[in-house]
Design a protein that fits this description.
With 302 residues, the chain is of the alpha/beta class. The protein has a single domain (36-141, 158-297), classed as 3-Layer(aba) Sandwich (Carbamate kinase). It is built from nine helices and 16 strands. The N and C termini lie far apart (65 Å).
């Protein structure tokens, strides 16, 4: 006997899921069109470097950017690994204004860890996700020329010049550059450690990047960073300058935000402080209207 009810169609839920995926792709289309051929500099650090799921997420994001015609450039840190290695050698790590004090013994460790362990590991990770990645240091090809930043910091360099010729050739060949933040002293020829956040900002400025992205272990920029309260989703460059002058920014966030200011003053369009503990943070920020973290733009009407 007919009941008037129709048997459920097992195909319909699958179609609904497929349509939802199509909507996501259509939502991303304007951003794909806008950023195709543009350079995005990504500072890779924090938990995203240590957690296997987050490592895979990061590698997938970078591969996706490259495959859709965006030119990603990765600048990495390696602070925890450096601190651990120094500790095993009996060398205590100290910081001044968020920057590692690096004496002659420490800079040899920094170089061996960044260039010999961390950089090849990231290249291997990206290649494993089908990205064409190529590892370099700031010493290679004279990429980063530096001078001593502060006598108190020892062999910590302040970037004087970024020679983009090396990176241009890598990018034009379809590779993703993976850069270890080491530089050569322009006056003494010695190796200097460079804060990775600072290096990322300087490289983004020199390449006239569309975006400068920092993966961090916090949600974004806070109104009061010490208390981690008042997450700021959008900031203009002028508002960021005010925040830096307020004394509310501390520790490792200082060089990040100072680098954002310098990069954007030099022509970088937007900077992003993202929570690298969220899977696919880069794609969520670039290809969705909501985004995550904090976006900083140059002009009040952007």
């Amino acid at each position: 006997m007919a009941t008037g009810h129709v048997a459920p169609d097992p195909v319909r839920p699958k179609i609904a899921v497929t349509m939802a995926k199509a909507r996501i792709l259509m939502e991303a289309m304007p951003y794909l069109q806008e950023y195709r051929g543009k350079t995005v500099v990504i500072k890779y650090g924090g938990s995203a470097m240590d957690n296997e799921q987050l490592r895979a997420s990061f590698a997938g994001d970078v591969t996706f950017l490259s495959l859709v015609g965006i030119r990603p450039v990765v600048v990495h840190g390696g602070g925890p690994k450096i601190t651990s290695t120094l500790g095993k050698m009996g060398i205590e790590s100290t910081w001044v204004d968020g920057l590692r004090v690096t004496d002659e013994a420490a800079v040899e460790v920094v170089q061996s860890v960044l260039a010999g362990i961390v950089n090849p590991d990231i290249v291997r990770l990206l290649i494993g996700h089908d990205a064409k990645a190529l590892g370099v240091t700031g010493i290679d090809g004279g990429l980063l020329s530096v001078r001593q930043k502060d006598e108190r910091l020892g062999f910590v360099g302040e970037i004087e010049e970024v020679d983009t010729g090396v990176l241009d050739r890598i990018l034009d060949a379809g590779f993703v550059p993976v850069i270890a933040p080491l530089g050569r002293g322009s006056h003494d020829g010695k190796v200097y450690n460079i804060n990775a956040d600072t290096a990322a900002g300087a490289i983004a400025a020199a390449l006239q990047a569309e975006k400068l992205v920092y993966l961090t272990d916090v949600e974004g920029v806070y109104d009061d960073h010490k208390e981690q309260s008042g997450l700021l989703h959008r900031l203009t460059l002028s508002e960021l300058r005010e925040l830096l002058g307020s004394g509310k920014v501390h520790g490792g966030m200082l060089p990040k935000l100072a680098s954002c200011v310098s990069a954007m003053e030099a022509g970088v369009h937007r900077a992003h402080i993202l929570d690298g503990r969220i899977q696919h943070a880069i794609l969520l920020e670039i290809f969705t209207p909501e985004g995550i973290g904090t976006m900083i733009h140059r002009f009040d009407d952007a």
